[in-house]
TrEMBL record:
Cellular localization per UniProt: Cell inner membrane
Ranges where the PTS EIIB type-2 domain occurs: 4-102
Record has Metal-binding as a keyword: no
Pfam families registered for this protein in UniProt: PTS_EIIC, PTS_IIB
Protein name: Fructose-specific PTS system IIC-like component
Chief location: membrane
Stretches of the chain forming a coiled coil according to its record: none
InterPro entries hit by this protein: Bacterial_PTS_Sugar_Transport, PTS_EIIB-like_sf, PTS_EIIB_2, PTS_EIIB_2/3, PTS_EIIC, PTS_EIIC_2, PTS_IIB_fruc, PTS_IIC_fruc
Alphabetical list of NCBIfam families matching this protein: FRU, PTS_IIC_fructo
Listed transmembrane segments: 135-158, 178-196, 226-245, 257-279, 299-317, 338-361, 373-394, 401-420, 440-461
Species of the source: Lactobacillus colini
Keyword Transmembrane: yes
Topological relation to the membrane, as annotated: Multi-pass membrane protein
Domain PTS EIIC type-2: 125-465
């Protein structure tokens, strides 16, 4: 019996990670292979591969969107490894399974750098940025929910009192403070994990401390901290600096102390002073200019911006274009600019929910398998992620992507027009109920109009596409 072990991950760690894991498991079982899949998602490492499972495996499949650590690489030393970008894995796993022996390459952790085939994906800018966002998400989600709960309590008449004269304060105040801390640490966590994605563990502490320093505007006499701009600049700079630093050959005497002592200390010394002297003032200046622009932008340009961001979010459903727009909107939350993330909250829900509804309204346009996946697509799309719409787009790229992009663009502009603000990520369609979206009624108006448009476009565009395909088939005969 062929034995396979696999690792899957993606920048956000939400949808692709688990969808590809399921695909590998299902395809292996169809072929009678023994399979064990480790997922490295937003919840951490699940179903961690044991040393025995790896040792007994004939092949290792790595479906990666953000690379793996040096410690992970050591686990697969001497194994036959097949590596594939996670974004391609959904459609390529059957082909990979057909050609395991020819596709696999013997991996030696001491001589070969894992990831040559995936270099651009693993080490791409968006991948590193999304690694930072993925780590920051729990801080913002938990913090946002705490703040929302505290605000709801205050609205219902509960006291919102800070500690004073030995009094510990009220629960509503405590919840608001906890939420505020989540937002405060969002930026340094983002910077630290961007650096970690590039330079591994030695990069974490220096990037965290420098990003936190850069977001203390009182130290620099500025009105605003460096925000996500500072986190990105410092995370990338420190990450690549440490990646280079680790290539320096040192004697055995210092080798054991390099990772936890020498590299972090030298990096913090250099970049800490550099941050204080140049990066924080410069980045805070840029952040101030950006925030001023976003807060004073004419309504007409806001509509154009919402149209563009909405189109980007819906275009590749969790791919690099979607992630770029998502990162821009999410990063502004820490600076209390919420309207762009309002577009995210509405538009990312549209493609999977719309295609599920289209399956029920016009089932003849979809295969039996697509119709069976409609309910899961709706549930996941409505509460978690856009990715369940991907299989439908792969089956009919032109009509599905066109429908999603056009509907997303129009809805993005409408969301901006109606001033929908989303203060933190939550459970998508339930966010207004949780107090994370304001005004709640405009959110549902935009969502309803967007779904009607998206479903209509899917039905019209795919009907035309299927008709053209049939005509081509008949002409070919």
């Amino acid at each position: 019996m062929t034995r396979i072990v696999a690792v899957t991950n993606c920048p956000a760690g939400i949808a692709h990670t688990y969808m590809v894991a399921e695909k590998i498991a299902d395809e292996s079982k169809k072929r009678g292979f023994e399979v064990h899949v480790e997922t490295q998602g937003a919840s951490g490492i699940e179903n961690r591969l044991t040393s025995q499972q790896i040792a007994e495996a004939d092949y290792v499949i790595l479906a990666l969107g953000k690379g793996i650590t040096d410690e992970d690489k050591d686990r697969f030393n001497g194994k036959k490894v097949v590596e594939i970008p996670v974004s391609e894995a959904l459609r390529n796993i059957p082909k990979i399974m057909d050609n395991l022996e020819s596709e696999a390459k013997l991996f030696s952790s001491s001589k070969i750098k894992l990831g040559d085939k995936q270099e651009a994906v693993q080490n791409g800018l968006i991948s590193h940025l999304m690694a930072g966002v993925s780590a920051a998400l729990p801080f913002v989600i938990a913090g946002g929910l705490c703040m929302a709960l505290g605000s709801i309590m205050a609205q219902f008449g509960m006291p919102n009192v800070a500690p004073k004269n030995g009094n510990i304060g009220s629960i509503a105040w405590a919840l608001n403070e906890l939420g505020s801390l989540g937002f405060t640490f969002m930026v340094p966590i983002m910077g630290a994990n961007i650096a970690f994605s590039i330079g591994d563990k030695p990069a974490y502490a220096p990037a965290f401390i420098c990003s936190l320093l850069a977001n203390s505007p009182d130290l620099f006499g500025k009105k605003t901290g460096a925000g996500f701009i500072g986190a990105v600049l410092l995370g990338l700079a420190i990450g690549y600096f440490i990646k280079w630093f680790k290539t320096i050959k040192v004697g055995k005497t210092f080798q054991s102390t390099m990772g936890f002592l020498v590299i972090p200390f030298v990096t913090l010394l250099i970049f800490g002073l550099f941050t204080w002297w140049l990066v924080a003032p410069f980045a805070s200046l840029l952040m101030g200019i950006l925030l001023n622009f976003l807060n004073t932008i004419p309504p007409s340009l806001k509509l154009v911006g919402g149209f563009v961001v909405g189109a980007m979010l819906a275009f590749d459903m969790g791919g690099p274009i979607n992630k770029a727009a998502w990162f821009f909107a999410f990063s502004l939350i820490g600076s209390h600019v919420y309207s762009w993330y309002g577009v995210v909250g509405v538009v990312t829900t549209l493609p999977p929910v719309a295609v599920a509804i289209a399956c029920w309204i016009k089932p003849s346009l979809f295969t039996k398998q697509e119709r069976a996946a409609a309910l899961p697509a709706l549930l996941v799309g409505a509460t978690v992620a856009t990715e369940p719409a991907i299989p439908y787009a792969l089956a009919a790229p032109l009509p599905m992507i066109s429908a999603n992009t056009l509907a997303g663009a129009i809805t993005g502009a409408l969301t901006m027009l109606l001033g929908v603000d989303r203060i933190a990520p939550g459970i998508n369609v339930l966010d207004p109920i949780l107090g994370l979206v304001h005004p709640w009624y405009n959110f549902y108006i935009c969502l309803t109009i967007g779904l009607v448009l998206n479903v209509l476009f899917i039905i019209v565009f795919k009907s035309i596409w299927i008709k053209k395909q049939k005509e081509k088939t008949i002409a070919g005969k």
